[in-house]
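Researcher: For the annotation table, I need structure tokens for Fungistatic metabolite. Please keep the output clean. Sequence:
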Amino acid sequence: MQELGPFNESAQTTMTFSHPQSFLLVVLLALLTLSFAEAKLTDWSSFDLLPSLTQHSKLHSRAAIVLPAGWATKGCVREPTSGRALTGYSFTSSSMTITSCVAKCDSLNFKYAGAEYANECYCGNSFQGGDTGGGTLDDGSCTMNCAGDATQKCGAGFRLSAYVKQSNATVAPVLPTGWSYTGCVSEPSSGRTLTNYSFTDPNMSVDKCVATCSSKGFHIAGAEYSSECYCGDSFQATATGGGANAPDSDCSMSCSGESTQKCGGGNRLSIYSVPQTTTPTGPTLPSGWSYISCMQEPAGTGRLFTGYSYSSSSLTVESCIGTCKSRGFSYAGMEYANECYCGTGYAVTPAVKATESECSMACAGSASEKCGAGFRLSVYSSEASGSNSNLVLPPYWGKTSQCIVEPSTGRALSGNSWIDGGMTIEKCVNLCDSTGFKYAGLEYANECYCDNTISLANGGGVPASSANECNMKCAGNSAQICGAGYRITLYTKGDSAATALPSGWSPSMCAVDNPSRILTAYKSTETALTPALCINKCAGLGYSLSGVENGNECFCGNVLNNNPVGARDNQCSTPCSGDASQNCGAGYRMMIYQRDALPPSGANAWALKSGGTSGVVMTHVAVVNNETVLVIDRKEANPLLNAQYLPAWGAVWNLNENSARPLNLITHSFCSAGSFLGNGTLVNFGGQPYTNRNGQAAPDGLQGIRLYNACPASGTCDIYENSNRIRMSSNRWYPTSTRLPDGSAIILGGAQTSGWSNSDDVNNPTYEFYPAKNVDGYNGLPVPSSSLPSGKLFVAANNQAMLLDWQTNIETRLPNFPNGQRVVYPMNAAAVLLPLTPENNYTPEILICGGSHVSDQTRSEDLDAQHDYGSAQCSRMVLNDAGIAAGWKTEWMPEPRLMSEGTLLPDGKVLIINGCRTGTAGYGNLQNRIGDSNADHPTFTPLLYDPSAPVGSRITRDGLPTSNIARMYHSIAHYDRGSNPNDDVSYKRYASEYRCSYMTKPRPTFAGLPSKIAYNSQFVLSITVPTGSQNVYAILMDFGFVTHSVHMDQKLVKLVSVRQGNQLTVTGPPNANIYSPGPGWIIVMADGVPSVAQQVMIGSGGNPPEDPAAIANMLASTQNPSPDAH
């Protein structure tokens, strides 16, 4: 028989992994507690109820979709790589369905309708961007549930659930201005009539072919053989029949995407064209700039200049060069009369010159100047003749390098680093530029280093004796030099001409706008708009948020509205009407700025105080008594050493002295769960597979159960582990646990091994108990979940939710989170169970803020640590019949937040603290990482959410202290501590964080707390509160166990309290369903200000019930994990 474990010995550790999995959000309704767990909990009958980050659920039933007359499904189709497939009309809605989308497009007389990303609808008469995949079929990829009906599919990321209006009438092509049909012509006996550009598309139409050729700058388009399109400016191979007139009857094949249109035939082209014009040139150039040549755009896809581009109906050579110059580019190219392209060199080599006569189009803003032609660029540059035009660097970076010395100890550049077997100058400089550094250094062929200063310590940072000492060829380009041993090829970024924002304002995000507008308080249209002008206007009107859009529109407000989903910054790139060197959003893309938080002030102001250093990264934390905090990290090179003089990965933090004592962990419990039992023992569940670092092994902790009984700060209590006697029945990496009404714990979900995202082959869709129980006949073994309706437990994963009755193993589905909000790792949101009070009859209500709207189908290597914004959305639901029927209620924070933590404050408000604005959790996966970190743009100022305030005034930043410590991945907020978004201890940017901070206010005091409180019993406290205090009462809190933005068991219960002078008579919680038996913390509130918490035992403090038969069966049926690598 398995013993429960020695409750007078301690047990706890942490687990290590580099790319964690998705958590589940769990709330036990009967117990009214909140926590998170790993992976999807269950397979619901024949479909996945809780999908992983890389899988979508398959619905077990589907309601019939009602379509307008004549409409039918077309299938799942792709968006093009840039732009949109359907461009006629679009809208978003949190109640989107296929029916509402198609009905809208039908009412506007469009032929096609497409629903995308759960809540978006697009209409059009043809699919655009066919040359880059627009409109092509991709069956099986439209897997996102519609925001308004989970039984319907509304596309996915960059995928449209498309519908078509069928008609027997001929659909006339919609052509660009000036284009017309000019006849049927033949192909030559060999070669092609139109040779500049071509593509095939199974959904070809005349509209699509002509629009594509026009967008590429060509004047002739030819559709052939039903699905082929060819572009050019003149007919080729005319000597062998190319372009020869043919009867229209030869062009009789129906277009593959529109059967009523004709798309040529075999060796026959249906030709459409637009007249070409030529005019002379005559620009006035800025100093240092000169004309280079008429150049060809690359054949196929891509552009010659990729740094920045825009189009203007008043384009001139001078305006294009001025824009490129002001943005730090040294090359400017004008194309197709109204397009301007900027770069620091030719992005495609070799660059091919064209004859000057081919750049024949007059500039849109000056008939006396030439601005290229279709697929032809009039190119100008400020670089000296003979410079390296093939080296394409970011704006303002010089192309002249310097060879400097690397010191014998340390680094000359230590802000960021990267090793790449394909290293080039461009890769290194782009990394340093994108991560905010001004120096980029290449060393030893494959190494890159970045910084904003050059260290001269230990003889480093000085010029080498000769430039020839940097003589190693770059690993990825043998024509380039990448330093040498202890020698750095250094590139430097010059000063930019960027205009500073008004003092006290900073960027928030680029966001997708919609017709309802995401800032609604004020709007103006400006002929000379800049971000500063709009910000000053909003500030003058008393608003804290400002947004610029479409080049000339200014918006203001104090709150975000109407689903402001983030977009990458390059989508907010339309030149400002008042300064073309600055960006002012784009069409339905708003760049949002926010006022900095007002500093704390007044008698009860918050303060942020230093609290020492922890010695180990505070990845997992639990406050275990009035004097100590249990800290657990992973096996890494922490500075705190254990008894064997090796780096510790666990510690006891002394709250009295702000110091740490090492613990001796056995198995690897990194990324694990934890709960207190009814007797006060803290139990830690699950962990990481076997790890060996720096010569020290951390044995497999996936089945680990570890016990810790707290002692005074002066004590020597330690973790207790013994897998022969105590273990889980299956592997669990990233599980969740929570305390039950009988004082035991339930452990849910997890993965069977490590990895960045979850999948069926590693998922553990079960739950179990400690001590082991016989539930549903499983007798101590893992309990798989089933699919019948009921509800005691709230569970959420990805953007889906369900109810689970853990006692009877019954589940039912809840509405998905609105607008595609995803709330679990690696898109962590802040989640809390709001306070349970006598006034709300202890009714549970969930609040979840932040996370991400990025599709879970996006590969990690396609995500961007610096430019993929998190979610600003808060979703809230009352968890009773009426609340569930009403669904999720949404509101928005003033900025996007990922990896923030929701911490209940004693006054019932929620502190949303730490985290970042862009990227994801984890490390080592995404583009544009900061070192290892998958995230950037840390959020230094907390938010305060008041659940009792009206919508629109619940969230504030003002009056809260601002930190200067980035706390992102692996940070916690019991106290403001920790952070390590790296694979091991690191001291570069976003380093491993050991500093501890406290947020404090002046507070009341109390005495007379008993050691134990029985349910519904009274006790009397002696209180000292400020004179004149009116609202005085006691609360009971469970601080729980916190890791990875997840607060397991966190809870606040307001207690019935009656004050008589300096005495407060308090009644304990009504029953174990309101607060499970076990340790808690009593706090006295006086007009919203809390006392120092004092620990108390709720209930008898006895051991939870044991089932000897279930324990024995579990031990006999499971294998003890090996302590060695396996």
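Researcher: And a one-line annotation?
Model: The longest strand covers residues 889-897.
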